[in-house]
Amino acid sequence: MIIDPPFAQGVLVRRYKRFLADLELPDGSTLTVHCPNTGAMTGCAEPGSEAWYSDSGNPKRKYRHTLEVVCASLGRVGVNTGRANALVAEAVSAGRVAPLAGYEILRREVKSPDGEARFDLSLHNGSREDAFVEVKSMTLADAQGIGYFPDAVSARALKHLGSLVDARQRGLRAVLVFCAQHTGIREARPAAHVDPAYAQALADAQALGVEVYAYGCVVEPGRIELMCELPVRL
Q1: Looking at the domain assignment, is residue 141 inside a domain?
Q2: Between 20 and 30 A from 30 (CA), which of 101, 111, 141, 193?
């Protein structure tokens, strides 16, 4: 994903009201930006951190700028969770996600077979079974390079797991991809210490045939790209 123009840079003053953040710009002024992340952002919302932001160019938006990346102590973190779906879709279309290679048609935001959720991607091919893919943005990490999901208790993520299990039981491929927009993550795990119910549900889902993968990202001012596959330990 090419970022054009590249992200501008400032310093994070604070993140507040979940969807807002104040940045100090190089000229000393303060800019309030939209924060597109509903999670706790543990470890990647520390005041004084270098922060990158984008400009929508839309003067009609109340907050036309968007917080994109926080340079945390453990690595650069893409905090715009909305980019995760596009990063995975781009990589799948380019054939860089080996387990999902060979499909001819990719669709975005598709209703789950049980009608209870929407999956981020569906893949279709006349010679292979349809696959439904749910993407989760992983930003929580520790000093050992282990990434965790979720960073807060998430009823929504638990619901998506249930829909993936349902799809698998209908004879379809059901796939969960953790998109680690954190350059310090080397391994992915469920955050049992944060949301034990999700961790147990994920292990149960894998046992029932849901495939679980994780991929790391390159995070630069002018480029974010899904790269190497990461080990997943449940």
Answers
A1: yes
A2: 141
Strands 187-190 and 146-149: parallel
Residue 109 tokens, joined: 């935001």
CA distances from residue 79 to 44, 60, 68, 94, 111 in whole angstroms, order as listed? 8, 23, 6, 24, 26
- Running DSSP on this structure, what letter comes out for residue 5? S
Is omega for the bond preceding 5 within 30 degrees of 0, making it cis? yes
Task: Give Cβ neighbours of residue 28 (< 8 Å, ≥ 6 apart).
Answer: none
Q: What domain count does the chain have?
A: 2
What does the alpha-carbon distance between residue 167 and residue 35 come to, in Å, rounded to a whole number?
A: 32
Domain check: are 49 and 98 in the same one? no
**Looking at the predicted structure, is the pLDDT value of residue 150 above 80?**
yes
Prediction pTM value:
0.93
